[in-house]
Write a structure and sequence with these properties.
homodimer, Dna Ligase, domain 1, 3-stranded mixed sheet, 5 helices, 41% helix, DNA-binding
Chain lengths: 123, 123
DNA sequence: TACCCAAATTAGAATCGTTCTAAATTTTTT
DNA sequence: AAAAAATTTAGAACGATTCTAATTTGGGTA
């Protein structure tokens, strides 16, 4: 692992997770002010291809990066905020239905977060 | 519903589903060669906001649009191909865990499709 | 140590998907 | 028919991401 790769991995895995490339870039610049955005892209892609981090796509949001520890996501339908949630594990059940073809799954649960409920003008 | 809105809705709901904006645009141009890409964007957004179609985001893929009939998705990890699959309904269980906050969920199940298995040089 | 090679980083252009703005057109209301 | 509202168009603009080519870095190895 290179310096940046390690650093970016560290940022992703020790934060609350769910960081965008821009957020990772901002965090990384505190320590290495000269670093360039492309380096962040290069390294998150490398880490992702290596299976060391997880990429999360939500409609109308930039991709976010997360730890690989198994968990599901709570997504605010209004502001896109992500939180971790653990719903019961579906792996055994999916393997039963699909057999060895099954690789992994991604479960997103949508709701309206408290911030949006409060500040929301309309229900 | 306007002419284009209706036509786009029809294209999405009668196809195998999972169409990108480009594919919808191509289909629409067969009947209305003068139509413009922005019109497709305008209308899929309108339909989506109205809850009449579903938007599907997968990492590294353009968004796709689908019918709203409840079903889950099988996603090829290699080529991104989408297919419908019905896994058992998690709604009751999620409502039990989360209460009224729960809105809906999105379950994506990853595998490697047959085409990719065959043509794939490496395993 | 000095050299070589491969990999990583940089800079910036380019691309893709999507949204925006303003003008033109169509539809609806009055 | 006139006015108002909504839709479509054209094309610029934008945000996110990838690409290309040049430069730098970091090991190995002669």
């Amino acid at each position: 692992m290179t310096k940046y790769e390690e650093e970016i991995y560290h940022i992703i895995t020790t934060s609350t997770g769910h960081l965008t490339v821009e957020q990772i870039y901002a965090a990384l610049k505190k320590k290495y002010p000269k670093v360039v955005l492309a380096t962040v892209y290069n390294n998150v892609n490398k880490l992702w291809k290596a299976g060391l981090i997880r990429k999360i796509s939500v409609e109308n949001m930039p991709d976010r990066y997360d730890r690989v520890i198994k968990h599901d996501h709570l997504v605010c339908q209004r502001c896109g905020k992500l939180e971790d949630i653990s719903f019961h594990d579906l792996t055994a059940s999916l393997r039963e239905q699909m057999g060895e073809e099954f690789l992994f799954y991604d479960l997103k649960i949508f709701y309206i977060c408290q911030d949006c409920r409060n500040s929301g003008l309309a229900g």
